[in-house]
Design a protein that fits this description.
This protein is an alpha/beta fold. The chain is 50% helix and 10% strand. Helix 4 links the parallel strand 2 (70-73) and strand 3 (102-106).
């Protein structure tokens, strides 16, 4: 972690003054989720918590998002729908078996619409014992006041350099695989589709790919620095028409991220249509 904001959740737990709901503003939602899951492992541990102890399966279930008492709600299309919140409430009608708490996390919670926001207020206005809620957002000002006022607000910021480097590496390797190792490109797609590979990250990768293709497209008309993307220098030999087609393809796929698409199928489509 780049700062200790999330650590105050653990401090509150140890001091037995844990809030029932937290609103977390961050510049990297997926990294924030990753760090938050580690904290939930410690909070729910029945023993003295030790990272990677392997004495029980709880941490593994939390990491893989397979723990029944941990519900992570992501936008379905453009918004988080009322039906998703109702389904969450139904699942929390029983006490947890494997953990101390029933826990819910809303990703991109700024996408709660009026209907789903009003539905979740029941959890916040009349909090039940044993339920913890987390709302992760990139801008807390986009969260309705009735939710904000009932949450402890945290701000968790990360070093953008690390995030940008990850995006850069994925984009370069994906372009390399699809053009140089065509038969392996679909396997590479599977290797990057971890729990951390979100629509948000995919969008950044697509934007970086557009930037890279455009860089080599401009090389057809202007001299470019051969060292900037040295791993991709083979693109200097591609025609401007082909590079323009690649730009248009990635732009199209990026737009489709606005809908409820399967990231696996979207990345595979990039590989197949590039071929």
């Amino acid at each position: 972690m780049d700062n200790q904001q999330l650590e105050c959740i653990l401090t509150s737990y140890r001091e037995e003054r844990l809030s029932h709901a937290f609103l977390i503003e961050t510049n990297n939602q997926e990294q924030c989720l990753k760090d938050l899951k580690k904290i939930l492992c410690e909070i729910n541990c029945e023993q003295e918590y030790v990272q990677d102890c392997f004495k029980c399966n709880l941490c593994h279930l939390i990491e893989l998002e397979n723990l029944p008492s941990l519900i992570i709600v992501r936008p379905d299309g453009q918004n988080i729908r009322k039906e998703q919140v109702l389904d969450l409430k139904k699942k929390f009608s029983t006490i947890p078996i494997y953990s101390k708490y029933n826990m819910y996390i809303f990703m991109a919670s700024e996408r709660l619409n009026a209907s789903s926001s009003n539905t979740i207020l029941k959890f916040l206005e009349e909090p039940e014992n044993g339920i913890l809620g987390f709302f992760i957002t990139n801008n807390k000002e986009n969260i309705i006041e009735t939710i904000k006022s009932r949450c402890q607000i945290l701000v968790q910021l990360y070093d953008e350099k690390d995030s940008n480097e990850e995006v850069n590496q994925i984009a370069i390797q994906l372009i390399s695989e699809v053009h140089l190792s065509k038969e392996m490109a679909l396997l590479f797609n599977k290797s990057i589709l971890t729990n951390d590979f979100s629509k948000e990250l995919c969008q950044k990768v697509f934007q970086k790919m557009i930037e890279i293709y455009y860089y080599f497209y401009k090389s057809q008309f202007y001299e470019q620095d051969n060292n900037l993307y040295s791993e991709l220098n083979f693109l200097f030999k591609k025609s401007s028409d082909l590079l323009l087609e690649q730009i248009q393809l990635v732009q199209l796929l990026e737009k489709e991220l606005n809908y409820n698409v399967n990231l696996n199928l979207l990345l595979d489509r990039f590989v197949l249509e590039t071929r």
